Task: structure prediction
Amino acid sequence: MVNTLNYMTFIDNASTVTLFTLSGFDEMMGHRSTFFSLTLLCYCAIILLNVALILTIVLDENLHEPMYIFLCNLCISGLFGTTGFYPKFLFDLLSHLQVISYAGCLIQTFVIYSSSCGDFVILAVMAYDRYVAICRPLEYHSVMTRQRVAWLVSYPWLSTFSLLTVLIILTSKLRLCGSHIEKLYCANWSIVKLSCTSTTANNISGYTGILFYTGHVTFIVCSYVYLIRSCLKSIEDRGKFMQTCMPHLLSLINVTGALLFEVFYSRYGSTVISQHFQNVMAVQFLVIPPILNPLIYGLKLKQIRNRIMSLCISKRMSLKKTLQ
Result:
């Protein structure tokens, strides 16, 4: 009888979790100043690179084409996701206690994963755009109308927000038995693992999401099969492929590799691996894609590279005139 009462008291207490402890910081605090400096530098670089590319595309009317609009969408997604991680991470490095509220944990999960998963859909949209441009060039403007471009810009956000909203609602309904998250940030599966009750609905929803995004990756692969076949027939098409598709392919490999590791390691990871290695692998999709995407496209796409160079030259000339 006493054991039953104790168990019922534990269950009642489990349902009132208001704070989560992030234990991923335990082995970092001895070098917090170093990690803080490197993280701040990384976050500033992400903001600078992505904002520069977004402004370049927005301000130059010659770049108001579907390919560049989708690229702008990819950079906005990168900024959105990193905003959910870096400010809180920097604050935690300066704090003695690394905790986050229940609501804040759910919001952070939503922001980080909606951005990362949304990248897959944006990359699928960009693959479709390249397929039409290279394989059906005469139909490009009739296919990529303003209405279709507007839909393709909004589709990644609408689909991802819908899926993540369902996932977060299901997670919020779980009765939790603990408040200890072994990561540097909140993740949906880390919260689900704390549940005292059945997580069948969460598993079904999670695997549905994985299948949804796997479908987009499959679509991208099929698009590239057609693209490569088309490019083999023409030297001009081969040049287009190398100029506009290679950056896209590099971004896809980058995002896919980073996010796949995060998904599979969070579910099936081993406790034998050191905390430092776990931390590095857990944050790579929040570090590498947001930095590499604007760099890859900014350096590879001739129109953007020329526009950035012309802006730099004009700024230098105006600065010289001011100093004279």
